[in-house]
Amino acid sequence: MVVSRTQKNLNIVLCLIENLNANVADNLYGQSEAYMEEREDEDILRYFNKRIHHVVFPKDGVKNPTNTKEICSICLGKFKHEETIGKIGCEHEYHACCIRKWLLRKKNCPIWRASVSPFP
Ligand SMILES: [Zn+2]
Ligand SMILES: [Zn+2]
Asked: From which residue to which does any coiled coil extend (predicted)?
């Protein structure tokens, strides 16, 4: 089957429009959204210090990574081995993802409601 010249050109044009639309959509939504998220992250990261939680294993060699006394007061879940923990100015600690979400809504401590200041 021979594809006519017009048909071929039309296909090229359609293809170009498709690519153009994809680029415009990327610029309008994809990039700006990612940019906003990044800015938000940078700002919120100043409010807590991150650390990786390490559960101290018992000396008898029994591994029980969930055995920890520290609890996140936001989700009431225990700090698990190698989870990222965020400590705010008043020394209270939470899961980094929990405190991040919390601080995006209000800048206070989930435990005693005192306002949280960013680290210098
Ligand atoms: Zn949590
Ligand atoms: Zn606190």
From this structure: none
Ligand nearest to the CA of 91: 2
Q: Is pLDDT at 69 greater than 80 in this prediction?
A: no
CATH number of the domain that 67 lies in? 3.30.40.10
Domain hosting 55: range is 46-105
Residue 116: pLDDT over 60? yes
Q: Could you say which ligand is closest to the alpha carbon of residue 47?
A: 2
Taking the model in full, what pTM does it have? 0.61
Q: So what's the pLDDT on residue 5?
A: 72
Question: What mean pLDDT comes out for the span 21-28?
Answer: 55
Domain-located, residue 30: no
Please provide the DSSP assignment of the chain as one string. -PPPHHHHHHHHHHHHHHHHHHHHHIIIIIHHHHHHHHHHHHHHHTTEEEEE--PPPPTT----TT--S-B-TTT-PBPPTT-EEEEETTS-EEEHHHHHHHHHH--B-TTT--B-----
How many A from CA of 106 to the centre of ligand 2? 13
